[in-house]
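Q: What does the assembly look like in three dimensions?
Context provided by user:
Components: four
Sequences:
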Amino acid sequence: MRSQVFEERPSLLAWVGLLRSHSALTRALNAELVSAHGLTINDYEVLLHLARAPERQLRRVDLAERLLLTASGITRLLDGLERAGYVAKGQCKSDARVTYAVLTDEGLEKLRAAADSHVGGVRQQFESRFSEDELETLAGLLARLPGVDTDGASCSPD
Amino acid sequence: MRSQVFEERPSLLAWVGLLRSHSALTRALNAELVSAHGLTINDYEVLLHLARAPERQLRRVDLAERLLLTASGITRLLDGLERAGYVAKGQCKSDARVTYAVLTDEGLEKLRAAADSHVGGVRQQFESRFSEDELETLAGLLARLPGVDTDGASCSPD
DNA sequence: GAGCTATACTTGAGTCGTCAACTAATATAG
DNA sequence: CTATATTAGTTGACGACTCAAGTATAGCTC
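A: Here is the predicted structure of the complete assembly.
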């Protein structure tokens, strides 16, 4: 009569570990980023993806796919970044439906400013707890879960 | 001149892996749970924690701590569960400030009904991709991150 | 080249959670 | 015992997303 399905299995432990650690880390790192630079983690990720993209621009759809957000989520995210001047809209010559999100110089500047402390925060969270090997193991395992398609910063369109 | 701070380190890979996998898994598992049982992941977790607690009740504060939510987040979460009849309010004799969240029979019923398919979903996500050993490794690594205080499935209060 | 389907994006409404401010009860100190 | 601090909880305003619906452009098929 003990709680049969009620926990214990490694898969469940991994799952709750993922839930909790995400919550804790996200909260901490996001607070850091917001208070130091006025950016959320997703803001930061947008700037980062744009910075790595050819021409520093990306279709909204592609951004959505990379960040695992919906199209409308991206619209809303970019609203803020556009208002702040970090991202601008760009037209596509061959397809009038697409609007590019283009990283402005100001946006790149902002990203550079934020990267130091943010990456520092991330590294501290992880590197203070794990060895290099462990981090590679962890990253490798996580990479096999859905959503982590290592889209590669590479430039080839589909 | 390559992007210096712009990725690559295992700690950063682990971090983005955590972000993405959480997003993807959460979305999938939550959708499943909502459509099959009308519960969110957090609803489910509340019911689960209550079911394991002595007397099937927990102070709101303790629930907040376990779920890594704020006090007001808990108030709102419980609002819904109380309206649904899965959780009731209980008074504390020795301290009039505290309100317990008490799992009702209906709530336990609901949890039982949901547990099967939810745990099944979680296991499928994880066990289809990893061996038992890998899952233990993953769980063990995640447990060392903040927020994963393995409050123990056991019943002993502090 | 007319009609259908698919794709890119936006918008309104709603959900879930946060923070800051507030009430109420308890604990602690002088 | 009174004054102050601390703890439990709720509430209003708001932020970040989602979903469903809508608009506009593109592409396919006959």
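Follow-up: The longest strand of chain B covers residues 87-91.
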